[in-house]
Amino acid sequence: MQQDLFSSHQTGLSQMPMQDADVHYQADFLDSGTATELYQKLQSKLAWQQDSIQVYGRKVKIPRFQAWYGDKEANYQYSGLSMQPNPWIKELAQLKLTLEQVCKTKFNSVLANWYRNGQDSMGWHGDNEPELGYQPIIASLTLGQTRDFDFKHIHTGQKVRLPLQNGSLLMMAGNTQKFWQHSLPKRSQSLGGRINLTFRQIF
Ligand SMILES: O=C(O)CCC(=O)C(=O)O
Question: In this structure, is residue 134 part of a structural domain?
Fold first, then answer.
């Protein structure tokens, strides 16, 4: 892998035609070779943990592994979990700088999600915790297996499906988290692993 891992990234985000939202997507942000290599590196290198949440009074393991990296003060509360950041590693710090230029904003943390197979998933939610601030900008990079990413408008119920492919970048901004929820549904087919990196600014 070259010195600057991401110097060859493409910039060509396209806006999705979604009302009450500001969503941009680029399928080939990283070329597939770079994305696959990065998937393998991060899968073995990140401090993955499988947390549990309370569901109807029962402790249930979430169906994916997660790791949180960022600046010291970037503590994140989410579904009753409090995540303390691991210090930046080289690959994530380089990506952060690249994505800050592309998205024209600052990020101080990244949530990494590792979906081992089609059974791993994430339920409906909005990234609207107070510490993400007003109109959060979230840069979401996919490495590995293509997975469907679903949006649902909280008032109209309208649904939009976007298959996120290896090396793709999804940027959500503006009112997206206010009016839309998103999820990564389970799949019964046998699917390979996927890592998703969501860069955020925690206030
Ligand atoms: O894996 C994905 O693309 C979804 C991640 C997500 O929704 C989140 O981290 O809030």
Answer: yes
CATH label of the domain that carries residue 93? 2.60.120.590
- For ligand 1, atom 10, the nearest C-alpha belongs to 127
- Angstrom CA distances, 131 to 74, 134, 199, 203, stand at 9, 9, 14, 5
- Residue to substitute in 122, 149, 169 for testing ligand 1 pocket (most ligand atoms within 8 angstroms of CB): 122
Rounded distance from Cα 130 to ligand 1 centre (Å)? 17
Gap from CA of 145 to ligand 1 centroid (Å): 14
Q: Is 149 in the pocket of ligand 1 (CB under 6 A)?
A: yes
pLDDT at 130: 92
> Is residue 55 in a domain?
no
Would 7 be classed as within a structural domain?
no
Q: What is the pLDDT of residue 114?
A: 98
Atom 8, ligand 1: residue with shortest CA distance:
198
Quote the number of domains for the chain.
Answer: 1
Which of 25, 110, 113 is the best mutation target for the ligand 1 pocket, counting ligand atoms within 8 Å of the beta carbon and taking the most? 113
Q: Give the pLDDT confidence score for residue 2 in this predicted structure.
A: 42
* 10-residue averages of pLDDT along the chain (203 residues): 58 94 97 98 98 90 97 83 90 98 97 98 95 97 98 98 98 98 97 98 96
Give exposure, 95-131, as e/b (b: 16+ Cβ within 10 Å).
bbebbbebbebebbbbbbbbbbebebbbeeebbebee
> For residue 83, is it within any domain?
yes
